Amino acid sequence: MARALNRALRDALADDPSVHLLGEDIGTLGGVFRVTDGLAAEFGDERCTDTPLAEAGILGTATGMAMYGLRPVVEMQFDAFAYPAFEQLVSHVARMRNRTRGAMPLPLTVRIPYGGGIGGVEHHSDSSEAYYMATPGLHVMTPATVADAYGLLRQAIASDDPVVFLEPKRLYWAKGELEPDVPPGGQAVVRRPGTSATLLCYGPAVPVCLAAAESEAARERGWDLAVVDLRTLVPFDDETVCAEVRRTGRAVVVHEAAGFAGPGAEIAARVTERCFHHLAAPVARVTGFDIPYPPPLLERHHLPDANRVLAAVAGLQWED
Amino acid sequence: MARALNRALRDALADDPSVHLLGEDIGTLGGVFRVTDGLAAEFGDERCTDTPLAEAGILGTATGMAMYGLRPVVEMQFDAFAYPAFEQLVSHVARMRNRTRGAMPLPLTVRIPYGGGIGGVEHHSDSSEAYYMATPGLHVMTPATVADAYGLLRQAIASDDPVVFLEPKRLYWAKGELEPDVPPGGQAVVRRPGTSATLLCYGPAVPVCLAAAESEAARERGWDLAVVDLRTLVPFDDETVCAEVRRTGRAVVVHEAAGFAGPGAEIAARVTERCFHHLAAPVARVTGFDIPYPPPLLERHHLPDANRVLAAVAGLQWED
Amino acid sequence: MGDAEARSADDLLPEPEPHRVLGTGAEPEPETWPELYRHLVRGRRYNTQATVLTRQGRLAVYPSSTGQEACQVAAALALEPRDWLFPSYRDTLAAVVRGLDPVAALGLLRGDWHTGYDPRALRIAPLCTPLATQLPHAVGLAHAARLRGDDVVALALVGDGGTSEGDFHEALNFAAVWRAPVVFLVQNNGYAISVPLAKQSAAPSLAHKAVGYGMPGRLVDGNDAPAVLSVLRQALARARAGGGPTLVEALTYRLEAHTNADDAGRYRPDAEVAAWQDRDPLALLGAELRRHGLLTDDREAALRAEADDLAATLRAGLGTEPALDPADLFAHVFATPTPQLREQARRLGVASA
Amino acid sequence: MGDAEARSADDLLPEPEPHRVLGTGAEPEPETWPELYRHLVRGRRYNTQATVLTRQGRLAVYPSSTGQEACQVAAALALEPRDWLFPSYRDTLAAVVRGLDPVAALGLLRGDWHTGYDPRALRIAPLCTPLATQLPHAVGLAHAARLRGDDVVALALVGDGGTSEGDFHEALNFAAVWRAPVVFLVQNNGYAISVPLAKQSAAPSLAHKAVGYGMPGRLVDGNDAPAVLSVLRQALARARAGGGPTLVEALTYRLEAHTNADDAGRYRPDAEVAAWQDRDPLALLGAELRRHGLLTDDREAALRAEADDLAATLRAGLGTEPALDPADLFAHVFATPTPQLREQARRLGVASA
Ligand SMILES: Cc1ncc(C[n+]2csc(CCOP(=O)(O)OP(=O)(O)O)c2C)c(N)n1
Ligand SMILES: Cc1ncc(C[n+]2csc(CCOP(=O)(O)OP(=O)(O)O)c2C)c(N)n1
Ligand SMILES: [Mg+2]
Ligand SMILES: [Mg+2]
């Protein structure tokens, strides 16, 4: 996936001279995950810039560049290191278009490697999507496949609105085919059709849900589980999601972020609002616990895995 | 309410020499809402300190003071001006106890005037509680009455955990009786018993819900609406809330914050998880819209009022 | 640093005494001084009128720049039309002097929109409320202009309190490292709301902060309009020529309360205010102009009349309720409204955004 | 500033050349230099061993301070036991020299806890990963100690890259305004991961930033252990005596990659590394000690043996899998676990937190 992202950035730089990349170590080094590998060499320091080490400064100057008409793409080195830029994101990036009655759109992409499962030490594995979802004015995208990594990132950069683009760290090494066209952002995709229950997920949880759905255990229980990859958390694709949930009458939301006030809360709430009388059981949530992200040696107990997903499916009141 | 808060701070300063107040304009001026009025004069500059204008610096130095064993109480001047301190809050305040295996608790209170309805210009009316709820390691309290303003703030300051203490701006001028004892944080309170449906709310939405429940319109429709004041968003009082919702079988969550991924999402989701088969209709949400907080002249259209609450109650599928 | 061009601290330190023009025997500039004065008079009237309008409930709030008009006017006049101004929430007047419609400039403070004017029309960034956050924007914009090869300089305004924010630091550092064509003007009015400078900084001067970024610091008498104009013009010329950013500190004073909602009597003595009233920027320049025969009673009367017209325009523009449409809540949140926003607009019973 | 004590920039500017002791003909200090050397040798061995353990998967990651041991050792030894050390993520060694158990010090990097040691036992704040965020903590703690009347000074470590963060600025400003007894040591090793200093700052030196806060800046050769020790001791004494904070910049170099996960060959030439290898802090002090007869072959051998023991302790301590209990996930999130956490622990099938 890292290579697909690299390719997306490369093509965006090549296609549009107003695209500029900014971040820590993204130039000579090519980023700590090598997502910008080779781009400074190919496009020069001014298109792919190693900034001083200051995240508010990075996002703040990128905002100024976007105000001048450029399309900055910012890399935050890790999820938790985007927090210093929180005020710029919430108070400016998300509001510039609105504030100026549309006169000053802010086409800016903030790439944030997020989530755990890579053995990262403290502050290197946060799932911070709830913060961005709760901030009106931001689009929030997160790919789960190589094709989406390329396709959604191109869409994000081309968007006239700011996009928080969350890259699942542990999928950086995932393999897959590049596809020229993927469905537009804002559209969820059914990764696996199914009739028994619907698993709603995004980013790093998609492979987990697919593994659960394809598992021996699921087959043994006779469960045919649908897996919906949300792809975009804002705007949310109520249509696809609700159609799938209505079909099966049972749903489980799966994500790594803490459960309390996490993304799954919104998903469960809105699905329930819309599909209440189709539901045989309340929408279940399988999430990270409500704790600071644990140290690497303990993270496997924290991260939702196929077993926890299946346990939640089992809890969906099949006896009724 | 501002006076009750002032009294709580005064009494805390008097009772415990380790309590120190820090913030912008809290000394000589007594705070822009006068919540710290007279405290610098009474306790000196070192107990009630006008800091330099830098919110991360305020919360960061307060963190250091707490590490030394003091109990700092920080005032953020307005909701949106707490964002610069977000990294300190999320990456340190919320995690210090956990990080040190309990060796270094962090007894620190962050007071944040929040919410709208006071005609504030841009950045002066945010409801940012979703951010804090989604951050494991923080308690989140918000009073709706004068008695709770005093009682909960005293509890927050006495807590050995960090507390984000959200003060509803538009209730600063609300009147009421001080009471020496209020129920502990973590406990919701039924402000009005009722049998038809349960309104779940906190902070500035409590008077709105009470007004809806007491309204002519409600009486005409024959609705006897229960109003539950959550008081504490973290930890959440599932017991009281679920007991009330089960009793009525219908619930509406009301808050000012944007609905999408807002506090109501968690509340609706967890109530549904726990009370599914008692619910005659999905839990409804009456919230601010998913927009940047509007300018003062438009805010009344944004803020949930009794009419919108009643409209939501009307939508709770009474025909079934 | 590691850079052959790195200058020594001596080149970067500000002048020991604030730069002054008025009263130094400097030759008056007939091209600029009368124009400065004209805008000072208009500006004072604008401030006074706006404050009155808050009392009548026509503005939600007004942070007046009364006493700081020399900085406001010089900042606006120092720029070329192609340049950009980055005002803070106190700098409505600078935007008006630059040409922004005097009523439109008050959208934020009137409360019908969060600024609302088109920043690109006159190259005036939205009035910025979160302190110091506009500084990195100015740096980024100036940097972008340079990357595009455009001859554009940005001037960013900030208060003494704002210099304590992390964004101030990060912006100045980026500007210096990138050699961005940007000038930072600190209007040091001695207070951040109630907090005096001594509780804000222990530095010899705020201009001394420049050294730590490797840019020159300049200190100027902020009530001496020609001095502010000349220091800013030098700094802007330097930036335009590729010399990089400059930090300018202007010593001034806010004669009114922080805003109409503030009670300045709580934190500063009347004698202090009175002392600064004696250094009123209008009086300083007016006296010098009169001394040189560049200001007559007739001219003064004409200026006052012009200023009264401006005040009348304000009163008229703000005298009626602004046109409000709840549908505006949902406008311009995104380029295309999301299905959710359309649904919410419908629920509120307004036309879809 | 508005303060009679305000010092002029001259008193605050750092020395033009980094302060050095070794090779200047200064008299050796038999009380301290051999002890410094002992810790340098142990420290180097600690670094090397830890890096080897990453290769064996015993540590999640190790940001080595190889080449920077003079700063690490001097920082630890400059402090009194009652003082506080605020290390960054690279400063495990300083914590170990201060007395922290060499295995316990690696909790963060081993990955069984987010540091986990008791900061109060030896007055060592948790190793801090978010850059520069530990600096305001140091200021607050030092301020609190002074409010309590305790004779306690805090020493906070940060990298050259960290000086660009807003928290650096805010911390130094608070420290100066409050005259807090705190010393900031910037280990300027020329790089923030791959980003060289020239892309980080355009200042004459990082120590020049001190002027902008009204505190003295000091520049020191960071590979000259006695020089670092003496500059830090002066600064700490000054802070202890109520003189307020100091910013010390130590010029040094990280001889290894950023961490074991990094490939330094991508961003810096071998020749540069080699040049710094010639200025190895161990070699510099060792040679001087030998010249003065304070280091013999026997002594050297004994030190190496002691260092090998330390390495063996590390290997032994990290050789076994740490005791892990999933119930720990829920421990110490709050003073008393919430009902929700108890429920989650139950769901995971572990004892309630
Ligand atoms: C980030 C942030 N924190 C706090 C505030 C609240 N506030 C508004 S103005 C002000 C004082 C500003 O002082 P200064 O920078 O000196 O500007 P002045 O008001 O004197 O023009 C404060 C604290 C804010 N607007 N933004
Ligand atoms: C706030 C924050 N942003 C980014 C990072 C990621 N990061 C870790 S180390 C590092 C470079 C630090 O450079 P410097 O301050 O010079 O310290 P050094 O590594 O050289 O000791 C970066 C960018 C971080 N830890 N914290
Ligand atoms: Mg000021
Ligand atoms: Mg470094």
TrEMBL record, chains A, B:
* Name of the featured protein: 3-methyl-2-oxobutanoate dehydrogenase (2-methylpropanoyl-transferring)
Q: What general EC class does the enzyme of this chain belong to?
A: oxidoreductase
Do the record's keywords include Oxidoreductase? Answer: yes
Gene Ontology biological-process annotations: branched-chain amino acid catabolic process; response to nutrient
What Gene Ontology terms describe what this protein does at the molecular function level? branched-chain 2-oxo acid dehydrogenase activity; magnesium ion binding
Record-linked InterPro entries: THDP-binding, Transketo_C/PFOR_II, Transketolase-like_Pyr-bd, Transketolase_C
Residue span(s) of domain Transketolase-like pyrimidine-binding: 1-174
> Keyword set for this entry?
Oxidoreductase
The organism named in the record is Streptomyces hainanensis
E.C. number(s) listed in UniProt? 1.2.4.4
Asked if Glycoprotein is a keyword of the record, the answer is: no
**One Pfam short name:** Transket_pyr
Automatic annotation (TrEMBL), chains C, D:
Question: Pfam families, per this entry?
Answer: E1_dh (PF00676)
Which intervals of the chain are annotated as region Disordered? Answer: 1-30
Question: Which positions fall inside the Dehydrogenase E1 component domain?
Answer: 48-308
The domain of life is: Bacteria
| Cofactor entry | thiamine diphosphate
The answer to whether keyword Nucleotidyltransferase applies is no
Tell whether Oxidoreductase is among the UniProt keywords: yes
Q: Which InterPro entries match?
A: Alpha-ketoacid_DH_E1_comp (IPR050771), DH_E1 (IPR001017), THDP-binding (IPR029061)
Would you kindly state one Gene Ontology biological process term found in this protein's UniProt entry?
A: branched-chain amino acid catabolic process
**Keywords assigned by UniProt, alphabetized:** Oxidoreductase, Thiamine pyrophosphate
Q: Residue spans with biased composition (Basic and acidic residues)? A: 1-20
Entry EC number(s): 1.2.4.4
* Molecular function per GO: branched-chain 2-oxo acid dehydrogenase activity; magnesium ion binding
Q: State the CDD domains in the record.
A: TPP_E1_PDC_ADC_BCADC
According to UniProt, the reaction catalysed is: N(6)-[(R)-lipoyl]-L-lysyl-[protein] + 3-methyl-2-oxobutanoate + H(+) = N(6)-[(R)-S(8)-2-methylpropanoyldihydrolipoyl]-L-lysyl-[protein] + CO2
Function recorded in the entry: The branched-chain alpha-keto dehydrogenase complex catalyzes the overall conversion of alpha-keto acids to acyl-CoA and CO(2). It contains multiple copies of three enzymatic components: branched-chain alpha-keto acid decarboxylase (E1), lipoamide acyltransferase (E2) and lipoamide dehydrogenase (E3).
Q: Which PANTHER family match?
A: 2-OXOISOVALERATE DEHYDROGENASE SUBUNIT ALPHA, MITOCHONDRIAL
Family, per the entry? Belongs to the BCKDHA family.
Q: Write the protein's name.
A: 2-oxoisovalerate dehydrogenase subunit alpha
